[in-house]
Amino acid sequence: MENTKRKYVIPGDVITSGPYRPEQNVILDGERIIATAIGISEIYDDTVRVISLTGKYIPKINDLVVAIVLSHSSLSWELDINSSYVGFLPAADVFGRDFSAHGDELNSKLKKGDLVVARIANSDRSRDPLLTISDRELGKIESGELVKISPSKVPRLIGKRGTMIQTIEMATGAIITIGQNGWIVVSCENSDGLLKAVKAIQMVEEQAHIANLTDRVKSMLESNGE
Amino acid sequence: MILGGRDTDLVLLDENGIRCDGRKIDETRKIMIKAGVLKNADGSAYIEFGDNKIIVGVFGPRDVHPKHLANTDTGILRCRYHMSPFSVEERKKPAPSRREIEISKVIKEALKPAVMLEQFPRTVVDIFIEVLQADGGSRCAALAAASVALADAGIPMRDMVSACAAGKVVDTIVLDINNEEDQAGQADMPVGYMPNMEKITLIQLDGVLTPEEYKKCVETAIGGCKLVYEIQKKALTDKYFSNGGNN
User: Which of these three, A90, A123, A140, is where a domain ends?
Assistant: First the structure.
């Protein structure tokens, strides 16, 4: 927190001027550093960036995402990852290297509408992001409740070193899978815990800008329990 | 109220410098902007600019359809300005008119320098502008609202684009021409302006001005744009940073 200066900005606002390094959501115009998104600007040492409060998910390599199967061709699936681009999941990733377009039926593994936890294997300007589900904890989700929040609020839901999400999981007994794209799967043995976890997630989304949110969520979870 | 410029008795500017709707020469109409009014669009805004009532929805960046329009180097911008059949006194046919096609084009080109779509190759940002009620100067109002809606959608922008018109009425340069002044006045000049970069992105002129008048007209319009900018800023601040927060 020390050395950081925070400010609310909208596109076009001059955050500062001088020898700073522009990072995400800012541009350099001569000496001035200008915000390009609505959000909170941070000046940290010699870097300036804006944490955006709105906008779609931008795929980054190694991000964990929750995706929905849109369709498939004979060689690959297309997955909705709540981004400007559709995710591309090649069949060989699921069936292994001896996949054959004639022998294997893609529908047998993943159908339209299925929920999948995937990792972004590759993402660049020229192609749609490449997904993979070949790893432990990745793959099709069999049960759970999908909750959608804004991708920009995912870090808030995780909290500092995962404190927020641990609080929710411990209080409700739910297992929560957070996709960096803002889609979250909650699964829980008992329905009460499920409802409470979903409510807590929605509360984080609504009050993301309020300080001391972990304590608020904690007290909400405790009060409902009685 | 008499419209259409047919009324010769209409006093556009009286001896005290008061215009036909009671404004001073450097005063805008009442402006109100609200951001984020539509649930299903990625970004949206509603503007009341005098008697103009305009709603704007923005989608994207998203996949381009038809696919051949996509550009592999950058995203593209599409804009549709449409007037509802009930937006004017006599029913307007809903099909896009020549005027609407023109305004769609100029608004798109006025926003293009501000948006940074090179970050989203092979995508499109769609802007849909629906005029619910029209008064003079609807292209400026639509442009100002579209800019707020784009920011609400989280599309990276170098600057906001604000817009305001100026014009000439009874040989005087006045700010923010209304419908009566547009019909009976001598000139109308809509201006789109990026207030922090200090750049003009839209300028049109209907009428005849001397070089001195032209200069004064541009300056007056830019002054108006700066007023509109403050209201745009407030609309976004209210949505994102007000304490109750997120609605």
Answer: A140
What is the nearest CA distance from A34 to chain B, expressed in angstroms?
A: 7
A84: nearest CB among B116, B123, B160? B123
Residues of B with CB under 8 A from a CB of A: 42-43, 60-63, 72, 114, 116, 120-123, 151-160, 194-197, 233, 236-237, 240-241, 245-246
Residue at A119 is within a domain: yes
Neighbours of A192 (CB within 10 A): 13
**How far is it, in rounded angstroms, from Cα A27 to Cα B23?**
40
pTM score of the predicted model: 0.90
Interface test with A, best of B72, B240, B243 (most A CBs within 10 A): B240
Question: The domain that contains A208 carries what CATH number?
Answer: 3.30.1370.10
Residues A177 and A193 reside in one and the same domain? yes
State the first-to-last Cα distance of chain A, in angstroms, to the nearest integer: 36
CATH of domain B31-241: 3.30.230.70
Give B94-145 pLDDT, tens digit per residue. 999 999 999 999 999 999 999 999 999 999 999 999 999 999 899 999 999 9
B138-152 vs B98-111: helix axis angle to the nearest 10?
50
In a domain, A80, yes or no: yes
pLDDT tens string A82-102: 999 999 999 988 888 778 878
Domain total in chain A = 3
Question: How far apart, in whole angstroms, are the C-alpha atoms of residue B52 and residue B88?
Answer: 10
For residue A105, the model assigns a pLDDT of 83
Nearest Cβ partner of A11 from B121, B157, B246?
Answer: B157
Here the CATH number for the domain that contains residue A113 is 2.40.50.140
Pairing of strands B43-49, B31-35: antiparallel
- The C-alpha atoms of residue B110 and residue B86 are separated, in whole angstroms, by 27
